[in-house]
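A common beginner's mistake is to predict each chain separately and then try to dock the pieces by hand. The better habit, illustrated here, is to supply every component at once so that their relative placement is modeled jointly.
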Amino acid sequence: MTRVRIDLFSSLDGYTAAPDGTSDNPMGEDWGPLTASYAATRTFREKVFGDDSGAGTTGIDEAYAAAFFTDVGAEIMGAAMFGLHVNADDPNWKGWWGDEPPFGCPVYVLTHSAPRPPIPMAGGTTFHFRTGAIEDVLAEAAVAADGLDVRVGGGIRTARAFLRAGLVDDLHVGIAPIVLGRGNRVWDDLRGLELTHTVTSEVAESGTIHVTFRR
Amino acid sequence: MTRVRIDLFSSLDGYTAAPDGTSDNPMGEDWGPLTASYAATRTFREKVFGDDSGAGTTGIDEAYAAAFFTDVGAEIMGAAMFGLHVNADDPNWKGWWGDEPPFGCPVYVLTHSAPRPPIPMAGGTTFHFRTGAIEDVLAEAAVAADGLDVRVGGGIRTARAFLRAGLVDDLHVGIAPIVLGRGNRVWDDLRGLELTHTVTSEVAESGTIHVTFRR
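With all components supplied together, the output reads:
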């Protein structure tokens, strides 16, 4: 049965990196420290960086990284995460995920701008652009997922919109043991999330605290 | 050798309860959920609630609770934590910690109001009132601690002032697995604290995440 999943990165003080909107370093300078333990895993090295040497960590972080890529049948993301705003006037701009994005499934991009046709990419990813309510986009994505899960990929405002609307079954937050003191706030407007979900936590060898909300 | 210690409670979203300034429920309604796992420990039941039946949890939370009361030779707290503002005009007001406060050592209360004489209490606690710089009060407390530790008890603004000034050797934060969405922010202005301290974390049976910064 389809579940709706979100994975987020947070610092101890509840921030995720603020994207700076440039394609050289789109996620901002704090993204590296925030995601370092994930980037070190065998799965991320292979799936995101194309390193098929088998190198990378294999502990608790790797278990979450592997799960991240398992059983996702459709993805939803905000326009900024696709990179729509970077070249907003170029109808041929295909986002900043490269020629073969690491999704391998339909990706629904939420946008307020004019509709544009779907963009099929190598590796099974097709970007679709939707302007409707998040509930409607989710319903379409759930059909497309065909029994697999729908992941709300981000950014943080998109994730919180789905959480606030009560649409998310599984939230995983990887909390890096660092204090950023700045960025986009992960947890705003989510008071009482522990009342509708069961919370469990474990600490990885890297020091990353993995917190999971599940209903 | 004297170390300077702080213990704090936080929610997952980085809030501690906002005191509401009434003596009926001085710590505010979120304080209970935030500290529930600590209040359930054998040590807290005995030391704070006077329950000497031996009841209470005995796991990881209890280990931190027992450490909380060990080797503290002097305490520093803000005026609000003493309760100074509740009866600011009453020179005979002895704070809201009761006839036998759970400190058992000299307690230095930071205040901007007029000096007042020390207040000796039952159980070895004496409240001293100081208007000087936090470095000077810490120096005096360290002498009084006589080789034991100095604990900065709170509130949160006092704790952050000592942390920002680089005066704290050990910070322990007990993170309750709840999202408060409101309160006083624990982590503000502490960017990079992990660069001067070593961070370790463990998850208690209760779900509380114990994060320790140590230098």
